[in-house]
Amino acid sequence: MTSVFYIPAINVIGLNSLNQALDTARDYGYKSALIVTDIMLAKLGMAEQLQQSLAERNIKSVVFDGTHPNPTTANVSAGLEILKNHHCDCVISLGGGSPHDCAKGIALVATNGGNIRDYEGVDRSAKPQLPMIAINTTAGTASEMTRFCIITDEERHIKMAIVDKHVTPVMSVNDPALMMGMPKSLTAATGMDALTHAIEAYVSVAATPITDACALKAITMIAKHLPVAVEEGDNLVAREAMAYAQFMAGMAFNNASLGYVHAMAHQLGGFYDLPHGVCNAVLLPHVEQFNSRVAAARLRDCAAAMGVEVSAMSAQQGADACIAAIRQLAKSVHIPTGLRDLNVKEQDFAILAANALKDACGLTNPVRASHEEIISIYQAAF
Ligand SMILES: [Fe+2]
Description:
By secondary structure, the protein is an alpha/beta fold.
């Protein structure tokens, strides 16, 4: 089987690495940037600071700070209009997954035309997007380095999965100095998202030796450092470790893809506008329970990576230990236990399950589920 490995050409990671990254942007010769961010980071002055740093490098910039936490088709259109009005030659996203995804949508439509809805699915675009630099402030969705772009279609109330090699940024930046201010709940949710990426990639039918190595290392680092990053937000060791871990989880899922946790979580996010990482964290043990019928040995590896002594365990015992370790980690970072706590409605499960089965992220789940089985997983997670 041939595998293709996608990753941005340049990936800058480390404390105070942003300046070095911006020097590279200057050397690329960009003249006019659209900065895509959200209102929180704009209010904190981070967008303005970035504008100053770009100006020092003779790069003009304009800010679009209207990105919704679950970015929408309307957000993409609004940002695209500013980009066109200012004749921008590059897009710089500043934030977590939401600004990165919104920026990808803008940059893709900027060169390919049409509407972002035209690109739902896998590799639907003809041309690379406008050059994009992704400056990450969470750990993480890893959207700063992936070919995944998730945009909510407000008309259909679904999250569209746009999986397209052309939305890969040219450069990703992970500077933990920008992550220190993340609140506890966001640190926990984004960290559990990264754990989900690594586990789904490891049990994916498209896993390779490269993605396996990235996934297992990421799982080990997240299990060790996430609780510290949540409890001690200014702990630089934990923050930097989480920056690396989420990046490696991104390397894994960007190439091995994901599974039903993401396919099902996207529907909850699109329907109820819920945080992505929390939806994943609640669903993860239940989907892996379902997957353990075919992926028990792989889940035992994940348990070992999380620090469980598995040498005397059967594959199924190891899978059970993995699921218990996931639950324990989620509990330790104060993730809600069930979908009930997120105001999800049982009567919506049938439509959510139908949409989950259409989500491109489910294609690589290790075992196929029926509509009834997806509903059962939602019910178990309730
Ligand atoms: Fe995710």
